[in-house]
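Entry for pyridoxal-5'-phosphate complex. Fields follow.
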Amino acid sequence: MKLKKGIPVIDQGNKLGFWGGKFGGNFVPETLKKPIEDLEVLFNKLKKDKKFIQERDKCFKNWVGVPTRFIKLENLTKHVGGAQIWSKVVSDANGGAHKVYNATVHCLLAKRSGKKVIIGDTGAGYAGKMLSMAAKKFGLKCKIFMGAKDIARQQPNVKAMKKNGAEVVPVYSGSQTLVDAVSECMRFWVANCDTTAMCVGSTVGPAVFVRICGWSTSQISRELKVQLIDEFGSIPKKLKLYNCVGGGSSSFGFWNEFMDYDKKQCEFIGVEAGGPEKSKKHAAPLTYGSKIGILHGAAQYVNQDSDGQIEETESISAGLDYPGISPLHCFLKDTKRARYTAASDEQALEAYKLVTRFEKLRPSLEPSHAFAVAISESKKLSKDTIVVVNSCGDAYKDRGILEKRLGKKYVKSN
Amino acid sequence: MLNPISVAFKKAKQENRPALLTYTVAGDSSKKQSLNILKSISKNADILELGVPHNTPVADGSQIQTSAYRAIKNGIKVNDIFKIVKDFKKFDKDKPIILMGYYNMIFQYGENKFLNKCKLSGVNGLIVVDLPWPENKNFAKKCKKKSIYFIQLLSPTTTKIRLKKIIRDSHPMNYFISMLSTTGGKLKVSPNDILKNYTKIKKIDPKKEIVIGFGITEKTIGKLKSADGLVVGSAFCKEISKSLKHRQNPVTNVSKLVKKLKSKIL
Ligand SMILES: Cc1ncc(COP(=O)(O)O)c(C=O)c1O
């Protein structure tokens, strides 16, 4: 299995949509074949269309707000005493997380295809919140599927969705989290694909959704590349990019533009959710060696039992609480371009405490996982190593959980 | 030897009626009960579809989901399903059985090992919901080598060119999904329109049997009589759920329902 240079990773799949010949694909009911093919044709055309790119860039600039900041975490760096720790503050983006890029592009595509309704899944609530925002902006009706457990633990984002006029459909099946929300959303699409566009909230699902999402979030690394050159004059000799990985959309977007650099110069570190230290359950299929299986239309490493039933996951972070992982990351893992590890609930909370103690930055529980590993590894790294952590979400949505786990003083009002 | 599925269609044609296909979930609500259901309905059903329960079914509505989750909770494993089929065939060796499920279960078992087990236990056909054409070409070939029908799904969204290609590659039986819906949806298209689509598909290769499924209940089955076969599924899952809730015997209730459905297509 080989990663090619000079070709975007999203376009390195084969004719049937498999990366490395075995990850991804289109394991979908017959009914979805046509709508998926239509979307593929539309996307392949528009991603080469200058006018469409201009439209996207204008949206990103005027509405999403680009570029998001690239800042040095001076105090944290001093405290840790190793590598320079920087952050790409993607939570600056409109709505407070990277999910806005994919949501915006899907709404632009839906408009082009003449669809009036758009549906989407959400875990942490950011994908849903951003889709509801974008749908409102573009005049589309919006319906969001969300696990009942996540509705309870991510209330601020649920409120935002409703305020934007979206219908939030609670999903009570299975573990009542993201995996069930995606299933329910796909089921709704099966029954309504003639009138409705579907947005998958991460780089998961049938191949075209993986590609659209990766294409959209790559905005993050396009900005970072410019910012790095502005700051250091060139891409640093020792660069390490840390990102949390749920489905894998923020991490993929954070790395995409650096893909062709040697990994000795530019290393990618993906941090999965290890779950509570006391629990056997986790959401880290790459770290803990899960087998390849089919989930939501794509072949990927996925937590499952020997029969092929998908296993329940557990994580303090709703956004990472997913048993599978993007085919793109399976590909990056097996080609050894990226390295994957996990942080536990407790480690993420500790990292959140540390970051907020030293910096004016409040990463949500998802990027706190990335900070946990970045901080611990930075201690042993030289001062000329540039560590960058994608702070891809804001902690406002997590205030309930943070207050319960850490006490009131860690929840500043917003 | 002719596949018992084809024999069943022949027999139904001789009686001037469509074949009645039933779908129940293996292990719903227990291994024993699902075997008993098969035994009790086999007199009135022509072909028995047995669902392989999966916990992330992207094409199933709430009734089949409930049955599948119930079966999984009660401990059903793939090997138990083969055992149910084998035990059933001891009781009625000529009645065709089709397993219907999601690809991950086959993938984890191993395609070849799965097909060997199908052969040994007496499975006659397979429907894999999320392994569409052309992705299924290779697996369908393997099925053919074992004389197991791989049943292609066709949908109202399937384009004409695609229909032709799928049917060209298909085995003697195909499955037309009546409307855009997960299983168990209310019939939102008129039986007449469904039959119009059906006829178009049938014309592509009249020799191939086409069954219609999704949304068929005792209210609608009579109006679709002219098809080669009709599949009822969610209605049975619902019946089992209802029976359990009212502490009634699901075996007798499902059996009664099959009998009633049969009477509507005679
Ligand atoms: C802030 C934040 N970060 C990360 C994720 C994980 O998703 P992904 O791996 O696709 O970036 C989510 C998902 O909801 C999120 O809200």
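NOTE: Residues 205 and 296 of chain A are 5 Å apart (CA to CA).
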